[in-house]
TrEMBL record:
Keywords: Activator, DNA-binding, Transcription, Transcription regulation. SMART domains: HTH_MERR. Signal peptide: none annotated. This is MerR family transcriptional regulator. Gene3D superfamilies: 1.10.1660.10, Antibiotic binding domain of TipA-like multidrug resistance regulators. SUPFAM superfamilies: Antibiotic binding domain of TipA-like multidrug resistance regulators (SSF89082), Putative DNA-binding domain (SSF46955).
């Protein structure tokens, strides 16, 4: 579907879809030689997910962080979004009842207590919102720590040395472009290392991990110990690697 068709289908502006593309939140499956954005069925599924999270009060930055997380699961997200929407509906229903009672109170038909005047009007966090943030935020870090904890001291030491060697190599390449052959070779080494020791990382998951390097202060702080700005540099290089990998695959 072309961008105008998607905009009309969903009821949002073409400008909004362009913005989502510009910030890397929703990238069209294809861009024609004449510059037309073409959206696939998978793009539409992702847009649905984005709009559900947006309706639930998540910022675009938070949504991008969540859907690009290596642990993100669409079915789990839909189940959680349903819980959050039910919670929201319940809160709105209570506020409607409070408004109806308030009108009757103004007309002198009933008397309301102070507590009744504010029934349903509270701004405490939806309990499922924190669950979403933890599910696709902290768990990425916790998962890695759990795998490391299962290894022997010698295994951890060997892994740590290889890990640091790759980071040190990348730090020495900071003066080069993220898409240079040397940088891309080092990033491939990092990609292969992760797949060898921490499960199967798809290109999308690898790209999402790179985004975490700049979105999550814990990653940024630890990576930048090897060189100032290394987290951002790696994130950009991982993004280039993902795009090139997609091209190589078809």
């Amino acid at each position: 579907m072309k961008v105008k068709e998607v905009a009309d289908l969903v009821g949002i502006s073409v400008r909004t879809l362009h913005h989502y593309d510009e910030i890397g939140l929703l990238t069209p499956n294809e861009i024609t030689e004449s510059g037309y954005r073409l959206y696939s069925e998978k793009n539409l599924e992702q847009l649905q997910q984005i709009l559900f999270f947006k309706e639930l009060g998540f910022s675009l930055k938070e949504i991008k962080h969540i859907i690009n997380s290596p642990t993100f699961d669409r079915k789990e997200a839909l189940i959680l979004q349903r819980k959050m929407l039910l919670e929201k509906r319940n809160r709105i229903d209570k506020m409607i009842v409070t408004i109806d009672k308030t009108i009757k109170h103004m007309m002198g038909e009933i008397q309301m207590t102070k507590e009744e005047k504010f029934a349903g009007i509270h701004f405490s966090h939806n309990p499922y919102e924190q669950e979403a943030r933890e599910r696709w935020g902290d768990q990425t870090v916790d998962q890695t720590n759990a795998k490391l904890a299962k290894m022997s001291k010698n295994e951890q030491k060997h892994l740590s040395e290889r890990w640091q060697l790759i980071f040190q190599k990348l730090a020495l390449l900071l003066d080069q472009s993220p898409d240079s052959l040397e940088v891309q070779a080092a990033i491939k080494e990092w990609y292969d290392f992760l797949n060898e020791h921490f499960g199967q990382y798809s290109l999308e998951a690898f790209n999402g991990l790179g985004q975490l390097y700049i979105d999550d202060e814990r990653f940024t702080k630890n990576i930048d110990k090897y060189g100032e700005g290394l987290a951002k540099f790696m994130s950009e290089a991982m993004s280039v690697f993902t795009v090139k990998g997609r091209g190589d695959n078809g």
